[in-house]
Design brief:
420 residues, 6-stranded mixed β-sheet, 23% helix, 29% strand, globular
Length: 420
């Protein structure tokens, strides 16, 4: 499967009378975009603002971050099953506004349970998002909407806006192109290279997914078992972040750090990237045993993998699911690397790991609740309401788990642990 990314660099976003790319400047007709978003009858109002990299600005509570992308005509579907018709993601040509992001703010989540985007200062240096140019959308729902319906309206607004912006590039010549091409385990030209696979959780059944929570090709993953997909599908809109977030954003599915790194090794002929598996964290032991067994067996017998990289979605139970899957892989003869984050506060490795399998000995830590920053007051705040705006504008302490992109379950974290 071959996916071509047509890259259009964006160095700034500004408002104008018509949405267009002016060199590397993205000009946005916010009135037209607002009208598009307001086609959703569940919304009564939407605010649209701009946050630039290096600007002393704080944004919260962030619901999701999306990179503006659009499929070339007759080349596929935009976010298939969600805003576009059902179609296989991961092939054809996708136009990308690299350097831009659509960030949607949730006006119904309290600060203590939500994520903040810090655009400048020491905390911002730990996040991949502070270097981007953000078009920030703050949807306000009509009275009487159920919470999950409001969250769905927020997701739809962000995806529609991201696609709307990227479609301005369809008639433009890209500044660069990237080709992502993997023939899978049957690729005869790569015989002899180590075969690597990726197993990633996309939801935790500790929290029942809402009926309209369109995580995987528009489905909420209820009843789903581990499923084989091509790595390109992760990068091309097949998967979006769920309502709870849990250290994931749609942007980092589109730019998945682990899959991109595996592709880099693949293109350097160090490995053969043979495929990937999407899975879930279970709600009980029987599900955990079944999902872990199935994912490992698929990696072994369907993908014929020699090595597997695994990530989780969530906290403690997903941690256990991931480690059990890795243990099954190791017992089947596949070497594994697991990526962990933790919610323990005593800074002890014994509290953080939650498992102790001798075979699972390659562990990458990406942060938890044990790191934080005292951040100063800022002159610009983009928030869901006035009360939250006042709180976010003041000096405060922000933990890594509350900062977008810092404790990243998808592998973007710059934090690492050292045990002395």
């Amino acid at each position: 499967m071959r996916l071509t990314l047509a890259i259009h660099p964006v160095s700034a976003i500004t408002k104008g009378s018509a949405t267009r790319l002016d060199g590397t400047i993205l000009v946005v007709d916010t009135d037209e975009l607002r009208q598009l978003i307001m086609e959703d009858a569940r919304l009564r109002e939407v605010d649209i603002q701009i946050a630039s990299s290096g600007e002393p600005c704080r944004i919260g509570v962030v619901s999701d971050i999306v990179e503006p992308r659009a499929k070339e005509p007759s080349s596929g579907s935009d976010f298939p099953g969600v805003i576009g018709p059902m179609a296989m993601a991961g092939s054809g040509t996708t136009h990308v506004l690299r350097g831009a992001a659509v960030t949607v703010v949730d006006d119904g989540t309290p600060l203590q349970n939500g994520k903040v985007l810090e655009m400048t200062g020491p905390a911002s240096n730990q996040s991949p998002y502070s270097s981007l140019q953000h078009l920030v959308i703050v949807p306000h729902a009509s009275e009487g909407q159920e919470r999950h319906s409001v969250q769905n309206a927020q997701r739809m607004a962000s995806l529609k806006a991201a696609t709307y912006l990227a479609r301005t590039a369809l008639s433009e010549t890209p500044g660069d192109t990237e080709t992502l091409d993997s023939g899978g385990p049957g690729d005869s030209e790569r015989r002899g290279l180590p075969r690597f696979a990726y197993i990633g959780q996309i939801h935790s059944r500790q929290r029942v997914a809402e009926v309209d929570e369109r995580i995987f090709y528009g489905d909420n993953t209820a009843g789903m078992v581990p499923t084989l997909i091509h790595p390109n599908e992760w990068l091309d809109g097949a998967i979006i972040a769920g309502y709870q977030g849990m250290g994931t954003e749609t942007y980092l599915y589109q730019n998945h750090p682990i899959i991109n790194e595996l592709y880099r090794w693949h293109n350097e002929d160090k490995i053969n990237l043979v495929g990937s598996i999407v899975t879930m964290a279970a709600s009980d032991n029987l599900q955990r045993e079944r999902n872990s067994m199935m994912a490992a067996q698929q990696a072994k017998w369907n993908l014929t993998a020699d090595g597997v990289v695994l990530t989780k979605y969530g906290g403690g139970a997903p941690h256990a699911d991931m480690s059990l899957t890795a243990l099954h892989c190791e017992k089947l003869g596949m070497r594994t690397v697991v990526q962990v984050s933790d919610m323990s506060r005593d800074r002890r490795a014994e509290s953080a790991l939650l498992f102790n399998y001798e075979e699972v000995d390659a562990i990458v830590y990406v942060g938890g609740t044990d790191t934080g920053w005292d951040v100063p007051a800022v002159s610009k705040v983009i928030a869901g309401n006035g009360e939250l705006s006042e709180t976010l504008g003041a000096p405060m302490h922000l933990q890594s788990g509350n900062l977008c992109g810092v404790t990243s379950q998808q592998g973007a974290s710059k934090l690492r642990s050292f045990i002395h």
